[in-house]
Amino acid sequence: MIKLYWSPRSRSFTTLWLMEESGLAYERVLTDISTGAQKTPDYLKINPMGKVPALTDGDAALGEAAAICAYIGDRYPETKLAPAVTDPRRARYLQWLFFSPGCIEPAIIQIYTKIEIPTSTAAWGSATQVFDVLEAALEKGPWILGEEFSAADITIGSDLNFAVRLFKMVPSRPAFDAYLARCMARPALQRAEKIAAG
């Protein structure tokens, strides 16, 4: 049985949405980060960083939301959440799947903290560049790879939902609004929001 270790109001929403989108049977294991449950020795064996989310699947254990998305998409191809390794779209899928933790999330932190980092030093360039590039990609739509929804949309959609819709840390843009509306219309995202709300 797949077990998803999660906590409300955390990055684990991405994987909650993923699992609801996958259609796979899974067990949700509430890991209350407000009580330090993610720092127990048993949990640290699953995710040594002591963060949520984490996932176990038989003998496999991993943390990091994008890695969990990659794992589920590859381990369970019937979910149709990832292009096959032989599919030419696989390259762009991987790029966008990891664009969230590698570019969007650092850009959000840069905006939130107002830290000035030279674009030549920051691995993501600049927050403006990140959101300009993302906007151009999303304008083509309806999803990041075109017509087919993938786990990359889950990572990107989660980040934009957090940064644009919920906390208004990133200014709205027409392409973001249209993309978020498509994400919000997905029944799996709606189920995940209900679960997260308790």
UniProtKB/TrEMBL annotation:
One of its GO terms (molecular function) is transferase activity. Transmembrane segments: none annotated. InterPro entries: Glutathione-S-Trfase_C-like, Glutathione-S-Trfase_C_sf, Glutathione_S-Trfase, Glutathione_S-Trfase_N, Thioredoxin-like_sf. Residues 86-198 form the GST C-terminal domain. Pfam families: GST_C_2, GST_N. Gene3D superfamilies: 1.20.1050.10, Glutaredoxin (3.40.30.10). Keywords: Transferase. Residues 1-80 form the GST N-terminal domain. This is Glutathione S-transferase family protein. It comes from Bradyrhizobium zhanjiangense. The lineage of its organism: Bacteria, Pseudomonadati, Pseudomonadota, Alphaproteobacteria, Hyphomicrobiales.
